[in-house]
Amino acid sequence: SALLEAMQEKTVTVGRKTYKLSDFRGKEAVFEELLERTLSDWARVGRIDEHLPADGSIANAIAGMVRASLAYARSNPLVRSLYQFDPLVVRFLGSSAAVRRHADEGRARLIDAIERGVARGELRGDLEPGRVADVARMLIMALIDHLLNPEWLDATDDQFVATCLEVLFHGVAARDPGS
Protein backbone atom coordinates (compact mmCIF):
# COMPACT_ATOMS: atom_id res chain seq x y z
CA SER A 1 0.00 0.00 0.00
CA ALA A 2 1.04 3.65 -0.34
CA LEU A 3 1.15 3.92 3.43
CA LEU A 4 3.59 1.01 3.76
CA GLU A 5 5.80 2.44 1.00
CA ALA A 6 5.90 5.83 2.72
CA MET A 7 6.77 4.16 6.00
CA GLN A 8 9.69 2.33 4.37
CA GLU A 9 11.00 5.69 3.15
CA LYS A 10 11.09 6.86 6.79
CA THR A 11 8.80 9.87 6.19
CA VAL A 12 5.09 10.37 5.81
CA THR A 13 3.47 13.46 4.30
CA VAL A 14 0.01 14.54 5.41
CA GLY A 15 -1.31 17.59 3.63
CA ARG A 16 1.61 20.02 3.57
CA LYS A 17 3.43 18.56 6.56
CA THR A 18 6.05 15.78 6.42
CA TYR A 19 6.64 13.66 9.51
CA LYS A 20 9.77 11.67 10.30
CA LEU A 21 9.11 8.18 11.54
CA SER A 22 11.71 8.74 14.23
CA ASP A 23 9.28 11.25 15.77
CA PHE A 24 6.92 8.38 16.66
CA ARG A 25 7.10 5.26 18.83
CA GLY A 26 6.58 3.04 15.79
CA LYS A 27 4.49 2.53 12.72
CA GLU A 28 1.33 2.08 14.80
CA ALA A 29 1.79 5.57 16.27
CA VAL A 30 2.39 6.99 12.79
CA PHE A 31 -0.74 5.31 11.56
CA GLU A 32 -2.80 6.55 14.50
CA GLU A 33 -1.66 10.12 13.78
CA LEU A 34 -2.43 9.77 10.07
CA LEU A 35 -5.81 8.28 10.80
CA GLU A 36 -6.69 11.03 13.28
CA ARG A 37 -5.66 13.80 10.87
CA THR A 38 -7.45 12.16 7.95
CA LEU A 39 -10.64 11.70 9.95
CA SER A 40 -10.47 15.27 11.24
CA ASP A 41 -10.03 16.66 7.73
CA TRP A 42 -12.75 14.41 6.33
CA ALA A 43 -15.12 15.31 9.17
CA ARG A 44 -14.47 19.00 8.54
CA VAL A 45 -15.22 18.90 4.80
CA GLY A 46 -18.18 16.58 5.29
CA ARG A 47 -19.66 18.48 8.24
CA ILE A 48 -23.26 19.39 7.55
CA ASP A 49 -22.78 22.87 9.03
CA GLU A 50 -20.08 23.64 6.44
CA HIS A 51 -22.75 23.37 3.75
CA LEU A 52 -25.63 25.07 5.55
CA PRO A 53 -25.93 28.85 5.48
CA ALA A 54 -28.20 30.31 8.17
CA ASP A 55 -31.16 30.52 5.79
CA GLY A 56 -30.12 27.61 3.57
CA SER A 57 -31.92 24.42 2.69
CA ILE A 58 -31.17 21.33 4.78
CA ALA A 59 -31.58 19.17 1.68
CA ASN A 60 -29.04 21.29 -0.21
CA ALA A 61 -26.68 21.04 2.76
CA ILE A 62 -27.01 17.23 2.80
CA ALA A 63 -26.29 17.18 -0.94
CA GLY A 64 -23.24 19.39 -0.36
CA MET A 65 -22.09 17.11 2.44
CA VAL A 66 -22.40 14.02 0.19
CA ARG A 67 -20.51 15.70 -2.66
CA ALA A 68 -17.75 17.02 -0.37
CA SER A 69 -17.28 13.60 1.23
CA LEU A 70 -16.98 12.01 -2.21
CA ALA A 71 -14.49 14.63 -3.37
CA TYR A 72 -12.37 14.11 -0.26
CA ALA A 73 -12.45 10.33 -0.67
CA ARG A 74 -11.45 10.69 -4.31
CA SER A 75 -8.42 12.79 -3.39
CA ASN A 76 -7.14 11.03 -0.25
CA PRO A 77 -5.14 7.79 -0.46
CA LEU A 78 -5.77 6.84 3.18
CA VAL A 79 -9.53 7.02 2.65
CA ARG A 80 -9.11 4.72 -0.34
CA SER A 81 -7.17 2.33 1.92
CA LEU A 82 -9.92 2.47 4.52
CA TYR A 83 -12.52 1.46 1.97
CA GLN A 84 -10.35 -1.06 0.16
CA PHE A 85 -9.72 -2.87 3.45
CA ASP A 86 -5.97 -2.40 3.48
CA PRO A 87 -4.95 -4.85 6.27
CA LEU A 88 -2.73 -2.27 7.99
CA VAL A 89 -5.61 0.18 8.06
CA VAL A 90 -8.38 -2.23 9.02
CA ARG A 91 -6.42 -3.57 11.97
CA PHE A 92 -6.84 -0.23 13.75
CA LEU A 93 -10.37 0.69 12.76
CA GLY A 94 -12.38 -1.56 15.04
CA SER A 95 -10.63 -0.33 18.16
CA SER A 96 -10.09 3.27 17.11
CA ALA A 97 -11.61 5.79 19.48
CA ALA A 98 -10.95 8.44 16.81
CA VAL A 99 -13.10 6.59 14.26
CA ARG A 100 -15.96 6.19 16.75
CA ARG A 101 -15.71 9.81 17.95
CA HIS A 102 -15.78 11.28 14.43
CA ALA A 103 -18.65 9.02 13.38
CA ASP A 104 -20.69 9.88 16.47
CA GLU A 105 -20.02 13.63 16.17
CA GLY A 106 -20.91 13.67 12.47
CA ARG A 107 -24.11 11.72 13.06
CA ALA A 108 -25.14 14.03 15.93
CA ARG A 109 -24.59 17.14 13.77
CA LEU A 110 -26.58 15.61 10.93
CA ILE A 111 -29.46 14.66 13.24
CA ASP A 112 -29.50 18.22 14.61
CA ALA A 113 -29.68 19.65 11.08
CA ILE A 114 -32.47 17.23 10.13
CA GLU A 115 -34.43 18.19 13.25
CA ARG A 116 -34.05 21.87 12.29
CA GLY A 117 -35.32 21.00 8.80
CA VAL A 118 -38.34 19.23 10.30
CA ALA A 119 -39.05 22.20 12.61
CA ARG A 120 -38.91 24.58 9.62
CA GLY A 121 -41.28 22.35 7.64
CA GLU A 122 -38.64 21.59 5.01
CA LEU A 123 -38.28 17.90 5.85
CA ARG A 124 -40.86 15.27 6.70
CA GLY A 125 -41.77 15.05 10.35
CA ASP A 126 -43.07 11.47 10.18
CA LEU A 127 -39.58 9.97 9.92
CA GLU A 128 -37.23 9.49 12.85
CA PRO A 129 -34.30 11.95 12.35
CA GLY A 130 -31.68 9.41 13.48
CA ARG A 131 -32.83 6.94 10.84
CA VAL A 132 -32.85 9.65 8.16
CA ALA A 133 -29.27 10.55 9.17
CA ASP A 134 -28.27 6.89 8.93
CA VAL A 135 -29.75 6.61 5.43
CA ALA A 136 -27.84 9.72 4.31
CA ARG A 137 -24.61 8.34 5.82
CA MET A 138 -25.28 4.96 4.21
CA LEU A 139 -25.60 6.70 0.84
CA ILE A 140 -22.21 8.36 1.36
CA MET A 141 -20.58 5.05 2.29
CA ALA A 142 -22.12 3.23 -0.66
CA LEU A 143 -21.09 5.96 -3.10
CA ILE A 144 -17.54 5.94 -1.75
CA ASP A 145 -17.44 2.16 -2.02
CA HIS A 146 -18.43 2.40 -5.69
CA LEU A 147 -16.12 5.36 -6.22
CA LEU A 148 -13.20 3.14 -5.23
CA ASN A 149 -14.52 -0.01 -6.91
CA PRO A 150 -16.43 1.21 -9.97
CA GLU A 151 -17.01 -2.23 -11.47
CA TRP A 152 -20.80 -1.99 -11.19
CA LEU A 153 -21.62 1.66 -10.60
CA ASP A 154 -19.73 4.84 -11.48
CA ALA A 155 -19.83 7.17 -8.49
CA THR A 156 -17.67 9.70 -10.36
CA ASP A 157 -20.67 10.37 -12.62
CA ASP A 158 -22.21 13.59 -11.30
CA GLN A 159 -25.58 12.72 -12.88
CA PHE A 160 -25.61 9.40 -11.01
CA VAL A 161 -24.84 11.19 -7.72
CA ALA A 162 -27.56 13.75 -8.47
CA THR A 163 -30.04 10.93 -9.12
CA CYS A 164 -29.09 9.25 -5.83
CA LEU A 165 -29.72 12.51 -4.00
CA GLU A 166 -33.02 13.07 -5.83
CA VAL A 167 -34.20 9.60 -4.82
CA LEU A 168 -33.04 10.22 -1.23
CA PHE A 169 -35.00 13.47 -1.03
CA HIS A 170 -38.08 12.62 -3.10
CA GLY A 171 -38.26 8.84 -3.51
CA VAL A 172 -39.25 7.16 -6.74
CA ALA A 173 -43.04 7.38 -6.48
CA ALA A 174 -44.74 9.56 -9.07
CA ARG A 175 -45.57 13.00 -7.77
CA ASP A 176 -49.15 14.13 -7.58
CA PRO A 177 -49.61 16.42 -10.61
CA GLY A 178 -51.41 18.93 -8.36
CA SER A 179 -48.44 19.38 -6.04
Describe the structure.
With 179 residues, the chain is mostly helical. It is 64% helix and 4% strand. The protein contains eight helices and two strands. The protein has helices spanning 2-8, 27-45, 58-75, 77-83, 87-93, 97-119, 129-148, 158-170, and strands spanning 11-14, 17-20. Strands 1-2 form a two-stranded antiparallel ribbon. A hairpin with a 2-residue loop joins β1 (11-14) and β2 (17-20). α3 packs across α4. The protein starts with a helix and ends in a 9-residue tail after the last helix. The mean pLDDT is 78.
List the helices and strands and how they pair.
Elements: H1 2-8, E1 11-14, E2 17-20, H2 27-45, H3 58-75, H4 77-83, H5 87-93, H6 97-119, H7 129-148, H8 158-170
Antiparallel strand pairs: 1-2
Give the key terms:
single chain; 179 residues; mainly alpha; 8 helices; globular
Q: Quick one: biggest sheet?
A: 2 strands, antiparallel
Count of separate DSSP helical elements: 8
Helix content: 55-70%
| Sequence of secondary-structure elements | HEEHHHHHHH
| Widest β-sheet, arrangement of strands | 1-2
Large-scale geometry: globular
Query: What's the end-to-end separation, in Å?
Result: 53 Å
Strand content: under 5%
Q: Overall mean pLDDT score?
A: 78
What's the gist of this structure?
The protein has 179 residues and is mainly α. The protein has helices at 2-8, 27-45, 58-75, 77-83, 87-93, 97-119, 129-148, 158-170, and strands spanning 11-14, 17-20.
